[in-house]
Structures are given as C-alpha cells and as structure tokens.
Specification:
It contains nine helices and no strands.
C-alpha cells in the first residue's frame, strides 16, 4: 500500500511540475493536474490542501537550502578579522557564487520553477531576497571600513539593487543555458570578474 501511495505522490509531483512550468503558478490548473496524474480529486487533497502547498512541495526544500547556504558564506566572512576581510572579500564573493552554482546545477528543476513559474507565490521575489542578503553584507562591510577611517563612494540605492539582482539573475540564466557544467562554471567566473571590476570602479576609495 505504501509503495502505491509513493508512486501516486511521485506522479502528482511530476505532472504538477510540468503544469507549473508550462502555465506558471497562476495559470496552472489543479483539475488538469488531477486528470493528468490519473487520480481522484479526493486522493489529491489527501496529499495537498492547496495549489500553494503543492508548489511548496516542489521547491521549498531547495529554496530554503540555497538561502541558508549563502547566509553561511556571508556569516563566515563576517567572522574574519578586518584585515582578513579586506584581503579575502573578492575570494569569498567568488566562493559563495560557486557554492550556489553547484547546488543550483544539481537541483535545476526546482530553481527553474522558482525563476520561471513562481508569480503569485511567496517565491516570486526570490532573486531580490538573495540580492538583499548581499546588499546588507556589503553595507555592513562599508561601515567597518569607515570605522577604520577608509571611506568609499556609496552606490545609489537603485544602482545597487539593479547590480545585485543582475548578478544573481545571471547566475541562474547561466545554469539554464544548454551548455556543459564546465562551460557554465567558466562563464560564471567571467561574470564575477565583470561585476567585481565594475563594483571596484564605482566604489573606489575616496581621496
């Protein structure tokens, strides 16, 4: 009996993932999902109470993991001494992106749903949430610099927001390209160098 229930659940999840990818969260039809999965409406509601709960089942675990992964990278950076932070900030930025890249690469379908189909769910501003983590960390580092008598130019908030969201959007777009993992990682590193150079230019130390 358990084996049959597990197979039914797998079928519902597979069909619903396809439905969400094709029509988005708002456009996806529970009636269509039930029909394509070959289950009764009663059976479906035995697993999920709503469309929102169904979408959660597909993406929540991976969504939460990636957020916590990036938080841990930022937290480890914040524990460094000031001199170490100055020396290693670019390395930590690259390391964080590579850690995220590896996880997203291995869980593409979850993140494809988040990036392409989550309008109307709590995940629709997922990239902005990642960008805000990075922005908050950068601002905290800038305060530390200033406490040490080092003053840099502050980015306009709109420019800062667009740059940060652009960086994370690029990360996901690279992974969704039809290229090898090696090519994707090389492209990611090129992207990091581009954003690093631009950021350093805009936020150079005041004379």
């Amino acid at each position: 009996m358990e084996e049959k229930e597990s197979e039914t659940l797998r079928k519902i999840l597979k069909v619903s993932a396809d439905e969400f990818l094709e029509y988005g969260f708002r456009g996806a039809s529970l009636r269509a999902i039930v029909k394509k999965a070959g289950v009764t409406t009663g059976a479906f509601y035995g697993y999920f109470k709503s469309k929102e709960e169904l979408f959660d089942a597909l993406v929540k675990k991976d969504s939460d993991y990636l957020i916590e992964l990036y938080k841990s990278v930022l937290f480890d950076f914040e524990k460094l001494s000031f001199d170490e932070q100055k020396k290693k900030i670019d390395n930590y930025s690259k390391f964080g992106l590579e850690q995220m890249f590896s996880y997203v690469w291995d869980h593409k379908e979850s993140f494809r749903l988040i990036l392409k189909s989550s309008g109307g769910t709590r995940y629709e501003h997922y990239i902005q949430a990642l960008a805000q983590l990075d922005t908050d960390s950068n601002r905290q580092f800038n305060k530390i610099l200033e406490s040490q008598g080092i003053y840099i130019k502050h980015l306009d908030p709109l420019v800062e927001r667009l740059l940060m969201t652009g960086m994370f959007t690029s990360l996901f777009n690279i992974i969704f390209e039809d290229i090898t993992k090696e090519k994707a990682l090389w492209t990611l590193n090129q992207m990091h160098e581009f954003f690093k150079a631009g950021g350093n230019c805009l936020m150079k130390e005041k004379q």
